[in-house]
Amino acid sequence: MKLTSVEFLVFLFVVAGVNGLLPPKTRRYLILAASLAFYAMLAPEYLPALLLVVIVSYSSGLRIEGRDGPARKRSYFLGLGILLALLVSFKYAGALRSLLDLKSRASLPPWLSSIGLPLGFSFLIFTALAYLIDVNRRKIPAEKNFPAFAAALLFFPKLAQGPIERAGMLLPQVSQPGGLDEGRVTQGLKRILLGFFKKLVVADRLAVFTGMVFGNIEQHNGSTLFLAMVFYAVEIYADFSGYTDIAIGSAKILGITLSENFERPYFARSIKEFWGRWHMTLSAWLRDYLFLPLAYFFSRRFPKSRTLGVKTESLIYAAATMITFGLCGLWHGEGLHFLIWGLLFGVYLSVGQASRKFRERVARRTGFVRFPRLRNAWKILFTFSLVTVTWLFFAVPRLADIGLILKKLLSFPGRPFLLSGSQISYSLTAIFLMALLDWSAEYGRGLSAFFESPRRIVRYISFAALAVLILMIGFLDEDQFIYFRF
Amino acid sequence: MKDLKRLFRKAVLFGLVLWALDLGLGEGLRALYFRRPAVDANADLRDLFILFEKTTAPILILGSSRAKNHYYPPLFKAAFGKDCFNAGAGGAFIEYHEAVLEAVLARYTPEIVVLDVGPYDFSKSKTRRLALASLLPYYRRHPEIRPVIKRRSPFERIKLASRIYPFNSWLFTLLNLNLRNPGPISLESDGYTPMTKEMKAPQWELESDRVIALDPLALRSFKAILSRSKEKGIKLFVFVSPYYSKTRKSYYALDAAASICKEAGVPFFNMWDEGTIRAHPEYFSSVIHLNTSGAQAFSRLAIEEMRPFLGIREDVRKSRPR
């Protein structure tokens, strides 16, 4: 059941209706049952793996809380170890299989060959890890009620693609979800509509072009590949943020508030700001549970102010950033391309941090600081270009193909291949509408005047027009969701 | 309760606004779709329009793009002395043919129907229902196709409550077709799409010799075509036209189709690896499609196979058009 399907909407409305009828204390059971049913409809074969994660993190949480000293530490590391082992074994099953095949030179049993990554598993493991870390740090108490805990971890709107929620934020809400509140339902429906628009009108429409170009790299020239790269940058954003909007809106209807995950990332003026706007729950997770502990660890190991003639602080930042983003890349998948994608962001951030003062000086000397709007526009464009290059490692898994694209971009421009007049018109319309939506939200102008108009009829017409656009130019027959892979 | 009442009021008001916009724009798109300039300027639109609204050809060819490219109507016309319309459509599956046959039967009853099938017609596939999208504009005008169209998805009936939905993704194409001047208006077409390309370096298509999982709904459609033809007294012929492929002829799906035909007393001809066509790689434009020379050669063979069932003795070669 896709989140952009009528089936999902019917499922959501039924669950919301029953939720509204139930007394508050019993709603958690409904949420749990609905989440299990949702996953069973998506990928029933992986349901045991998900339940295993829930049981391990629930029991580990209780064991950590009930102990002190080395016993607490043992329970903590055992819990983390099992969760990480599960993540690695499912995530890298393909690579492990190839290795075993190579070593044993014998074919593996079919059941082992058929193991894949359960849908949303990486998101689930990160949520579970955050829970155990927070319990160990005594930031939150361990949850005693198993159905509430399981419902929070498996909460169906966010199960497959996040946001990666913190237990401290979600558990109290799932323990006693709100009922059918008119304001929340209206807000939720608006958000779902926006998500449908981003996914069906923008992402899936652009995917037709990018899929075709990146599927036949040899056949296309530099201009076409450049266009596909730009389209892919918009596609992946619309795809992921669209699904997140649907998840947030659905949760809102059920009386639960999920964290925001995107804040118009392509308006970021630096890579650092980009990560504050893109997949915000993952960035915050990486910051709190990986980057800061690493930086703290390094700063204790290297107390001197300068190391090898360089400020130790800068070296620690660079090292912690590279490790964090390297692991972030590996979290996305087993290929080398994901590792390079992560490391590229590490390099961007480290170089950005090291060159901050130098760039300020250059801007002052050249007089660029006197044109703040122009400078902002340049920063936005530059950041977007850097990010667009990194998406290449997402769109194309083979490094040889990425090399070919970069070579073609530099040496063989030519006229772009535009598929067909109507296809390119849909794609450009999609990009224009997406940019207009984000621009309006960023600067509080443009379309915001319609969607947030004090006159009800104007608001209704605006949202109805969005629905009509989906029916008219949305890509309603095919579906792929980029982030389901993770 | 107060909350629910307010929510209900809002939903009704929003629903009304949406309904009005949908109706206005949907009707606009419908008018653009069925306007003659658009119909004339696009071969697919034109052939579909002729099929649904105009043709009364006694011989009808049904099938996918392989039917569209493999059956040469002038030869059928010459051999049997009756008009022939090729209703093959790219990417179409058996459900599509069922809907098309129902639409035709609502207007007239053809005497002969040739149905071209392949293993893909009966296999489980996500894309098979997509082909029905091209029939959506006819959903309101032709109630007889509705039962088939509703099989596209479990909630197709809800989606089709929208007037815009049947014209999804048509906006720019329709604007373009309506603005373009198509020249003299003509609805003359026998539905055949010629292919001139010759397969350059013939490559055997290396498909696995797998057993295809059969789709029960597809088999239901196939049986429906067979029984409707029998009911209406149509002489139905089922063919598997040639492939330039190494894959074995005896697909499980085709065996199933053959046995259904045998049971129903419908002639079934599996010409997948027909030697006289296979001996000529130049007859193919790709491993799955014949070009015009190939289509003519294959059509002659098909006519020869049909002839005894129709009680016609003439030699088709004598009536070949020059």
Q: Could you explain the architecture of this structure?
A:
The complex is a heterodimer of chains A (about 475) and B (about 325). A two-stranded antiparallel ribbon of chain A has the order 1-2. The model of chain A has no long low-confidence stretch (mean pLDDT about 90). Chain A has helices at about 5-20, 25-40, 45-65, 70-90, 95-105, 110-115, 120-135, 145-155, 155-160, 165-175, 180-215, 220-255, 270-275, 280-300, 310-330, 335-355, 355-365, 370-395, 400-410, 420-445, 450, 455-475, and strands at about 305, 310. Chain A has about 475 residues and is mainly alpha-helical. Chain B is globular, with a radius of gyration of 22 Å. The interface between A and B is medium-sized, with 30 and 30 residues.
Brief sketch in words of this structure:
The complex is a heterodimer of chains A (486) and B (322). Chain A has helices at 6-21, 27-42, 47-65, 69-91, 93-104, 110-113, 121-136, 146-153, 156-159, 167-175, 182-215, 222-253, 271-277, 280-301, 312-332, 336-354, 356-366, 372-395, 399-411, 421-443, 448-451, 456-473, and strands at 306-307, 310-311.
SSE diagram, text form:
The complex is a heterodimer of chains A (486) and B (322).
Chain A: H1 6-21, H2 27-42, H3 47-65, H4 69-91, H5 93-104, H6 110-113, H7 121-136, H8 146-153, H9 156-159, H10 167-175, H11 182-215, H12 222-253, H13 271-277, H14 280-301, E1 306-307, E2 310-311, H15 312-332, H16 336-354, H17 356-366, H18 372-395, H19 399-411, H20 421-443, H21 448-451, H22 456-473
Antiparallel strand pairs in A: 1-2
Chain B: H1 2-34, H2 36-41, H3 43-54, E1 59-62, H4 65-70, H5 73-80, E2 84-86, H6 94-105, E3 112-116, H7 146-149, H8 156-159, H9 171-179, H10 216-232, E4 235-240, H11 252-264, E5 268-270, H12 275-278, H13 292-310
Parallel strand pairs in B: 1-2, 1-3, 3-4, 4-5
Helix pairs in contact in B: 5-13, 6-10, 10-11
